[in-house]
Amino acid sequence: PFRFTQADREGRIIRFQKNLITTGFCPVTDDCIDENKSFNYTVFTPRDGKEKRSDAIILLHGLNERNWNKYLTWAEHLAENTGKSVILFPIAFHMNRTPSLWSNPRAILPWVNERKQEVSDLDNSTFVNVALSSRISKQPLRFYVSGLVSVYDVLQLVREIKSGYHPFFKEGTSVNIFAYSIGALLSQVMLLANPENLFTDTRLFMFCGGSIFSEINGNARDILDGEASLRLRNYYMYDFLKTFPLAFSNANISLEQAFSMMICPTVMTEQRESFFQSAYSRIRAVSLKKDVVIPTQGIIKALGKVSQKILEELDFSFPYSHQVPFPVNGCGYNESVNRAFRCVFEKVATFL
């Protein structure tokens, strides 16, 4: 694995993090959580003997993910079938970027019980989602701030790669993105804003992702509990744009504007759809018909008319979900699952 350590961040992000309300199980402010600032990440690479690579794919995962198990086969397939190195990069406060306590069932169970006492008729509250649910409920702005942190981390990584500073990649390496679920929203924001022109030529493939924010439903036992999901949606639909009013010009789009564009279909529709129209040759998406977390309709609302060229909806013959698109324990479905996996990832590998 490689080690990533955040470079000094601009004061605005630190101020944001310091002002976010803390939770009982994590009384320190977000800027003081060391695991989020320095962490390991893994790179899958083709077995071709090359010492330094000239092509990279960054793989971005979904919301409330704690391990990479689901993605290992995905990364291996992409590395072998594209001839490119695949970087499994964790977004802020996910995977190995949180204190281990947050994903320890025995340690976290008292907080599940406490949350159920705090919120009456709470649905889908589990030890798997209590850390994220509590932190989002306390301060929904945390979703945006952590997204900003993730973007700055990816920017730092891409700079290291393109400058030749990364020990694994040559100077001028091309960087494409494979994004799943909420990782797709992160990627759309980065491509829309294109900070420092780092993503001018980047190709993006979105799987089970790419929806306008207002259509995303994170209320699930392994994502967010019902109260946190509702608070998150209501905050960004009704409060965020008042707190951070948009001043749009035809000059560069800021990260804040790019995120605001992705909140609901009626905000900066023309600018958002115009971008996807101009960039459609670099973007592809596959959605799943029975996905209730990131529905196809939400992706169409984000992309506009050009979704006809970018998006393909698939449906599988076996039981699947957003969180588990390719179930490995499906009795009698193994061959169907393998076929579906190959169908999706051959599209990804061909495009990236």
TrEMBL record:
It comes from termite gut metagenome. Gene3D superfamilies: alpha/beta hydrolase. InterPro entries: AB_hydrolase_fold, DUF6051. This is Uncharacterized protein.
